[in-house]
Amino acid sequence: MTNSKKSLALFLVLFVIFIDWLGIGLVYPIFSAMLFHPDHQLLAIGASYSWRCHCLGLLLAATPIAEFLSGPLLGAFSDQIGRRPLFLVTQFIAVIGYFLSALAVSWGSIAVLIGARALAGIAAGNAAVVGATVADLSTVETKVKNFGLYSMACGLGFTAGPLLSGALGSIFGFHVPFLLAALAILTNLILIYFFFEETNLSPKGAAVHFGEGVDNLIKAFKIKGLKPLFAAMICFFFGWSFFYEFIPVVWIADYGLSAQQVGTAYAFGAAVYALSAGYLIRPLLVRFKHTQLLVYSLAVLGPSIFLLLFQPQSYWVWIYLAVFNFLSALVWPTATTMVSDLSPQEAQGETLGIYQSIQAAAFGLSPLLAGTALAAHTHLPMTIGGAAITLSALILYRKQKGS
Known about the structure:
The chain is mostly helical and 403 residues long. The protein has a single domain (3-196, 211-402), classed as MFS general substrate transporter like domains (Growth Hormone, Chain: A, Up-down Bundle), CATH 1.20.1250. The chain is 81% helix and 0% strand. It has 16 helices and no strands. The chain has helices at residues 3-36, 49-81, 83-107, 110-124, 127-136, 143-172, 176-195, 212-220, 227-244, 247-255, 259-280, 282-287, 290-305, 314-341, 348-376, 380-402. It is globular, with a radius of gyration of 20 Å. The mean pLDDT is 85.
């Protein structure tokens, strides 16, 4: 494959992950506002605060739980039959999922919305295929840079998602952002069909079976070189999800932010993340070892969450978002690169699928638990999130000292 074709393939798969994360960020301002803001009611006016918290947990959990089930299968299938067919199938499913989400919001049906978010999650399992494709297209020298671009695309998608949903949703209705996402995915589906060339030139014939996600969780803690990293990252994913997915409720309760303001705050944080992942962290990636970067970043990130428990003036939230997302930009691409580096070339899709299973399992389970925690106290998800991320730093620090 020529360099120009590699560049085009890289752009197309980065656009896939951009849309995946646009869809993730899209829902935070919408769901929190529809359930908790008095101007936007998805549930009956008399619904209890506890029930609203549990519904938010269900809505946020539907996508990652489905992704947990689909991601490992898609990653393993891509090793077996190639990356391109999986991109075409998952993008088609995503179009249906986002179109149904728009209909569900228009109808005011939370049941249909949960089902539609599950379809979007099945499609989002292609993140493992994207990671494997980035590895296919990378050399030893370009892998860190390409995975940095991968994280940058995630950050840009997460920037656009809440910004679009907060602004357009408040003006035209919360169904409109889902329609725009469906249109963007359909566009990328057409581009992949006509312009994407297969990157897995040596497919293997390993068997693939359902229940792979559960099997992968077991495998994750049996792989000698990756076991400590996977253990640390599952704590990080739990903590990140507890904190970042439920912080809009805190903003609405403590500062009275509107859906548009919540979307703007998320977009600002995600923009800092994208800029950091694409450019600002590069000098640090060169200067420090990957394990050192993870330990230092997590050691600051976890405890810093507790600072927000003191309920500072609202302008401090913006400063904190910048710091939080800069540190997060060090964590995500560094960890993904380490997983890829420690994996054999012929099993990139499978190993990254295992890693995707860990992330999806944490992102699927934590909203259900955080919904219960939120019902007990508005700030409890924040406290648990900070503790979990701090624990991830301690796990890696212990591993670093022992090696």
